């Protein structure tokens, strides 16, 4: 099937010209001559690429670009900004708004086509589901360090490229759904009521709740009845195996500390991220947990450590010292953003969707891509 390109320009002449050039190369072309129309068409027609003029009345190309990037249903679409201007500042503004590439008018047809081809190839590569599924667990060295926030955001990044499930394994203490604005949260409890060999893939599929971030959520409630005491480790492992088969990318929020359930789940995981905060207590707990996880059978390169700096304070253990205490390298440090974390939770959205251009969002993106890349390499 021909790749579909949405061309946006309020100048009808250049709209036609670019359209014809692309059609000659075999692309299916759809057009819009105003910002709002572009957003509507992008959402409805899901083009493979957008070519966007900057100078448009009413809503300019930067704004269109930002809005496309903000919407989980359009944020993955590659964007080329197209304009008569040649100022470097415009280029910077374009990239800041989230454009992938930039062309100045008048453009030679050959250049336009080669940029389009290159960008489509890159995005096809990014979107092609690798044949290796990924199960990625997040475990807090202690409670309240930001494990749920990290798991949720990483899952939202992965969901751009492949079907992704996010499962809350804090049985009876689930908060994941609430922080995403979902109150129906008995999916996990319903599954765990059955013995391991009786859980069917269809049942797991049925208990997942779709979210506007693109994620499929398997949620634990806050009801104490659904507790660690009654759940069987093998049943939990069976749930993870079904999730892997159903969703390609599977992110697990394991809560804090190793217990008999999380220990049983370790062999089901490809990657485990241990979440710490910048103090000696958390780092010391983390060191012991790393040693124990290696004994249970995880390899060193399957374990990563991420430090979340929730408070803006200088009284914290610096990177190098933290790595010494851990006896393990740290993959990332996430900057403090208390207000944004709060507002994102109020909006029921992951930070990477709520404020995609923030520093923290780019740190989260990078982490997700690095570990997923490490796994598929
Ligand atoms: N980078 C950050 N800067 C500031 N606050 C943050 C940051 N990341 C997360 N938070 C906030 O920290 C609090 C705890 O986060 P979260 O619920 O993710 O922790 P947790 O480790 O899952 O907790 P629990 O052990 O209770 O499950 C939340 O209020 C969250 O909004
Ligand atoms: Mg949590």
CATH first level of the largest domain: which class?
A: Alpha Beta
Q: Which term fits the overall shape? A: globular
- Alpha plus pi helix count: 16
* Overall mean confidence score, pLDDT: 90
Gyration radius from CA atoms, angstroms: 23 Å
The CATH level-2 architecture of the largest domain is identified as 3-Layer(aba) Sandwich
The oligomeric status of these chains comes to single chain
DSSP E strands, number:
13
Low-confidence stretches: none
Q: Which percent band covers the strand fraction?
A: 15-25%
Index terms:
16 helices; binds magnesium ion; 45% helix; single chain; 377 residues; globular; alpha/beta; eight-stranded mixed beta sheet; five-stranded parallel beta sheet; binds adenosine-5'-triphosphate; Rossmann fold
Report on this structure.
With 377 residues, the chain is an alpha/beta fold. The chain has two domains: 124 residues, Rossmann fold, CATH 3.40.50; 243 residues, P-loop containing nucleotide triphosphate hydrolases (Rossmann fold, 3-Layer(aba) Sandwich), CATH 3.40.50. It has 16 helices and 13 strands. The strands form two sheets. The protein has an eight-stranded mixed β-sheet, sandwiched between helices. The protein has a five-stranded parallel β-sheet with strand order 2-1-3-4-5, sandwiched between helices. A hairpin with a 5-residue loop joins strand 8 and strand 9. Helix 2 runs parallel beside helix 3 and helix 6 crosses helix 16. It is globular and about 70 Å long. It starts with a strand and ends with a helix. The model has no long low-confidence stretch (mean pLDDT 90). The site of adenosine-5'-triphosphate has 22 residues, from helix 6, strand 10 and helix 14.
